[in-house]
Design brief:
The protein is α+β, with helices and mostly antiparallel strands. Helix content is 43%, strand content 14%. It has a 7-stranded mixed β-sheet with strand order 3-4-5-2-1-8-9. The chain starts with a strand and ends with a helix.
């Protein structure tokens, strides 16, 4: 059994960025071995376990293949013979497909460190185009790292456009889309989330109501200020509704928040503003 720190924690360590969550991959183990060591099982789709002391997630190395529509349409295979490289290749971006061993050694089969130096968000493999949620995730990462000079690789933008032009985005749940949107509102450059979605033809499918705000540079500048995500949301909706008659704005905001599962705190502040 070998245990590796993976994903965002490795990426942000190398960027000297704050690390908030740590995820681990376990290679060469069975669920029975994990249980014997005191790990608590969670999830039904694939074997994920909670560490008895730290509470952090440890997932058995696994592979996946597309079996249906949307981000849940996958079949997973976890067994002791799945290698670390096989587990990492199923991830979205090269900068998220690195692992760190106990001694600090970086395992980087898909050149994530190089892309960190180049400041490029690049997909790991063509399988990227099987998961529509990755359109939102890449846009959110762009919102986080745009201030550091990161861009999206042209080939990755093309795959995101292909996902947007098909019907895959329609199979994302409103709750999952809101989760990514809300997180993007808390990033350093939330306007970049919207710009990237627009560049990839996803904004018109996911948030068509926000397109008018893209024509108001003052709105995009305002939401980039270091303020509460709820305030950013209120400013964004106001910018999107500037050409909407005042008496219609309240109902439009309520409808938007209902459709996108926005929490009451976001809706109420938008209505007040």
């Amino acid at each position: 059994m070998q245990i590796y720190l993976v994903g965002g924690a490795v990426r942000d360590k190398l960027l000297d960025y704050p690390v908030y969550d740590r995820d681990w991959v376990v290679v060469g183990a069975t669920p029975e071995q994990m249980l014997k060591q005191g790990f608590r099982p969670v999830g039904k789709d694939f074997p994920v376990f909670i560490h008895p002391k730290s509470g952090e997630e440890y997932a058995l190395a696994r592979t996946e293949r597309k079996s249906g529509k949307g981000y849940t349409g996958f079949l997973y295979h976890a067994s002791p013979d799945v290698t670390l490289e096989e587990d990492l290749i199923r991830r979205d971006l090269t900068i998220n497909a690195m692992a760190m061993a106990d001694d600090g050694t970086i395992i980087d089969p898909y050149h994530g460190q190089q892309d960190l130096q180049l400041k490029v968000l690049r997909h790991v493999s063509p399988a990227f185009a099987e998961d529509p949620l990755r359109v939102l995730r890449v846009a959110r990462f762009h919102a986080r790292y745009a201030s550091l000079g990161f861009t999206v690789a042209p080939q990755t933008l093309t795959l995101m456009q292909q996902l947007s032009q098909g019907d895959e985005l329609e199979h994302l749940t409103a709750e999952r889309v809101w989760q990514e949107f809300q997180r993007a509102l808390g990033e350093t450059s939330p306007q970049q989330f919207l710009i990237t979605l627009m560049q990839t033809d996803a904004l018109v499918k996911l948030f068509p109501e926000l397109i008018p705000a893209m024509n108001h540079p003052q709105t995009l500048e305002a939401i980039s200020q270091p303020i509460d995500p709820r305030v950013r949301f209120a400013i964004l909706l106001r910018g999107a509704l500037l050409n909407t008659p005042l008496e219609q704005r309240g109902q439009t905001i309520k409808t938007f928040c209902d459709q996108h599962r926005a929490p009451n705190a976001y809706r109420d502040l938008a209505l007040q503003f």
